Amino acid sequence: MFKRSFLGATIAALVFCGSFSTLNASEIPESPVSIEKNSKVPLRVLTRPGAVMYSDAEGKNVLKSNLPTFSSYFVYKRPVGEMLVSGNGMYQVGVDDQGTVSGWIKGSDLFEWKQTLCLSFTHPDGREPVLMFEDEDYLAALVNMAADKRNAAVDGYYTSIDQSAAKKKPLPADFPILSMEPKMSVDNSSNFTLMPILDFRTVEFEGREARLLDIVAVSSTEKDRKSSDLRTNTEYLQTAVEASESKADKLANAKFDVVWVIDTTLSMGPYIRKVKESMIKISKDIAAQKDLDGRIAFGVWGYRDATTKDLEYITRNYTPQLQGIGDFVNTMDSVKETTVDSVVFDEDVFSGVSDAIAKTQWRDNSIRIVILVGDAPGHELGSEWNVSGYEQSTLRTIANESNVEMFALHINPPKTKKYNKIAAKQFKTLSLNPGTDESLYWAVPSTDIAAFENASNLLSNAIVKYASTIVSSFKTSGDDVPAAAGTAGEQAAAKPAENKPDVQGPTEETIMKSLHAASVTWLGNEANVTAPRDIEAWVVDKDLKESTKQSMEVRLLLSKSQLDDISTLLKDVLAAGETNQVSGEDFFTSLQAASAVAARDPDKLAKAGNIAESGLIPDFLNNLPYKSRLMEMNNEVWESWGPDEQNAFLSNLESKINSYAAIHDDTSQWIKLNPDDDADDYVAAIPLDLMP
User: Fold this and answer.
1) Cα distance between residue 614 and residue 604, in whole Å
2) From the DSSP assignment, how many helices (H) and strands (E) are in the chain?
3) What is the largest CA-CA distance in the chain?
4) Is residue 292 part of a domain?
5) Range from 200-209, 301-310, 346-355 carrying the lowest mean pLDDT
6) What's the rounded Cα separation, in Å, for the pair 321 and 314?
7) Where are the beta strands (DSSP E) in 7-107?
C-alpha cells in the first residue's frame, strides 16, 4: 500500500525576471498568500517550461513569454475552488515578499510548493547513478518487481544510455528515463542546483522503507538553461556517462593536505615520538620522489583538556600554515606531551577535531585528510569540560560538508576498558568517511608501541603511495590495489614490517578505497560536474539495484532567520530541561517559564500534548516527513527517562545549537538565490542529520 501526501520544497528564485508591475499602489496586496490559513510561511511557485506572464487577471495582455523554466515567485493572489483544481485559474505573483508584484501566471504554467525540503545525491562510490523517470507509476512498478527482474531491467536502462552516448544505438522511442545523475561526483558548491520535492510516496522496497519522490531540478544560473533530458540533450547525455576514471589523469596535479590531530597529554609521550619517527621515514620517501614536491603538505594540532590550567592549552595549532615535510619534521620536535596529568581520563578530543576541520588553513582544491591519534574518549555532551559543544555524529556531518577524510588511531590502555569502548564508538563514527562502508579506525594496544608504529606507518605510507601513484591507484583501488613498482614510497608501503604484530584495523586496500572516494569528490569539483537541471522527474531515494544503499539525502533549505528560529527553540527546550532537573517542576511548566517563550502563547503551551502542539515550532518545520524526538516530547516522555537519557537528549540539542552557530558564521554555506537578496535572505541546505 502507498501512503500519499503532498510535499513542497522551498526554494527561492535562482533567476528572477524583472518587475513588470503595472498596478497602482492601492491595488498591490500588502503581503503574499500563506501556505495555510494559520501559517505565516509565504506560498511560492515555480514556473513550468513555456510559462507566460500577463499584466491582467484575464490573461489578455502578455508581459513576457517563455519565462525561464522553474523561476520562483511569491504568490499574492491564488485561485480557489474549481479554478484552482483545474489549473485554469490565475496567480498574481511577485519577485519578493515585500509587495513587488510582477504580473499574473496561469495555474497550468506553474507548480506550487509549501515546505523547505530538497534533495542532494549521496557519494557515488559503491552505488549506481540515480535514474530519473518521467512516469510515477512506471517507477513504482519497477520498485515492486522481483529483484532479479528489476536488476535485469535496470541494467538494460544503463546499457541503453551508454550505447546511445557512444552512438551505437539510439534510445527507444518509449524510453522511460528522462535523465540520469552523472556518473562523476556532482559539484553542487560551485554550480548550485536545487532539487525541491513536489510530491512523494512512501513505499516498501525489499522490506525496507523507501520514498518515490517527484522533484524538479533548478539551475543556479540562467546561462545555458537547457533541460537535462538525455533523450534530446546529447551534450548532457555525453556528460552523464563519463566515469571518474576517464578523468583520472587530472589527478596527477592533485594536492594532499594531511593534518595530524594528536592527544598531547602525559600518557601520549611514546606515541608522539613514534609519529615523529614516521614523519622522518615519510620525508625520505618524498625526497626520493620529485613529483611529490609541493603536492603533499602537513599540519598538526595538539589537544589536551580544560580540567586544569596547568595543561597549558585545550587545542594548539602548531602549523598556522601547512608545511612541506622538511619543515614539518622540525615542527614535530616542538610537539611534546604535558608533564602534568589530567584530572580525569577523558580529554577534549572534539575540540581538537573541530578546530582541525574548521580552522586549518587548507590549501585551495586539495584532498583534505585528518589523522586522529589519542588514547582517551572525548568528553561527552553535557560535561562541563566539553568546550566545543560537539559530539562525534555532528562532527562527522560537519566533516562531510567540509570534504574532510578522517582516519583514527585509537590507543587502548588495558585498565580502562569502559573508556576504551566509549572512545572506540566515537573514533569509529568520526572515521566513517563518505563512499565507504567501514570506519578507517585502528585499535592499538597501549602496551605495544610496535603495534602503533606498524599502524602509523601503514597509514602514512599508504597515503604517500597513493599520492605518488594516484592515477593508476585511482583506476584500480575499487578492485585490487596496485602492486609496488619501484619507487621508495611504493616499496616501503608494500614491504611488510618485520617483527611487527598485527593490528586490528583497515588494510592498505581499504585505505586506498577511502582515498579513491575522496578523489572522486575532488575530480567532480575539478571537472565542475553539474546535476541534472530544468527537469521534473520521479526518483527513488535508494539504489535501484541495492536497496540497502541510500542514493539521495534530504536537506532542509533555510534562511538565516529560520536557522535562528530553530536555535532559539532548542535553547528554550535546553533551558527548560536543565531547570526541570534542578527544580523538579514538570517539563512544560519549566518550558513555559523559559525567557524566550514568555512572549508567546502560554495558554496553547499549557494545553499541548507535546511540543509539536505547543505553538513553539516554527511554521516551516511543521509536517516534515521525518521523525523527531523533539516533536514528541511531553511531560510523560520526559519523566519516563532517567537522568542519563535526559542528559543525552539535552546534550544533543546543545550540539545542534553549536552546529547552527557554525553554519550561521560560515559564509561558504550561504547561497544568494535572488539578485537583490540581502544577506539575511541567503539560504543554506542543511542536512537532516543536523535537525533536532
Assistant:
1) 6
2) 19, 24
3) 88
4) yes
5) 301-310
6) 20
7) 44-47, 53-54, 62-64, 72-77, 90-94, 101-106
Helix (H, G, I), strand (E, B) or coil at 179: strand
What pairs with residue 72 in β-bridges? 46
State the Cα torsion 412-418-422-423 to the nearest 10°. Answer: -20
As given in the structure block, the three cell numbers for residue 144 are 515492486
Which of left, alpha, beta for 256 (phi over 0: left; psi -120 to 50: alpha)? beta
What are residue 203's DSSP bridge partners? 210
Same domain, 122 and 100: no
**Is residue 335 domain-shared with residue 360, that is, in the same domain?**
yes
Chain-centre distance for alpha carbon 635: 33
**214 secondary structure, DSSP code:** E
Is 416 a member of any domain?
A: yes
Q: Which amino acid is at 346?
A: D
Q: Which amino acid is at 467?
A: A
Cβ(533)–Cβ(217) below 8 Å: yes
DSSP state of 81: H
Do 78 and 183 lie in one domain? The reply is: no
Whether 67 contacts 17, CB under 8 Å: yes
Span between the terminal Cα atoms of the chain, in Å: 29
Residues 629 and 106: their CA atoms lie apart, in Å, by 41
| Cβ proximity of 17 and 95 under 8 Å | yes
3-state secondary structure of 666: coil
Say how far apart CA 11 and CA 681 lie, in whole Å.
Answer: 11
Per-residue pLDDT tens digits for 159-198: 999 999 999 999 998 999 999 999 999 876 666 667 888 8
Q: Residues 27, 161: one domain?
A: no
Give how many domains the chain has, as a whole number: 4
- Mean pLDDT over 602-613 rounds to 68
Q: Which residue range(s) make up the domain with 654?
A: 559-690
pLDDT of residue 459: 92
8 Å CB contact between 493 and 508: yes
Per the CB < 8 A criterion, the answer to whether 490 and 465 are in contact is yes
Q: Note whether 410 and 460 are within 8 A (CB).
A: no
DSSP notation for 295-314:
TEEEEEEEE--SS-GGG--S
Say which amino acid occupies 112: E
Task: Supply 378's cell numbers.
Answer: 572525548
Q: How far is CA 683 from CA 3, 202, 238, 624, in A?
A: 30, 28, 32, 18
Strand 542-543 with 404-412, pairing? unpaired
Q: Is residue 684 assigned to a domain? A: yes
* Exposure string over 535-561, b if 16+ CB within 10 A, otherwise e: bbbbbbbbbbeebeeebbebbbbbbbe
Same-domain pairing of 107 and 127: no
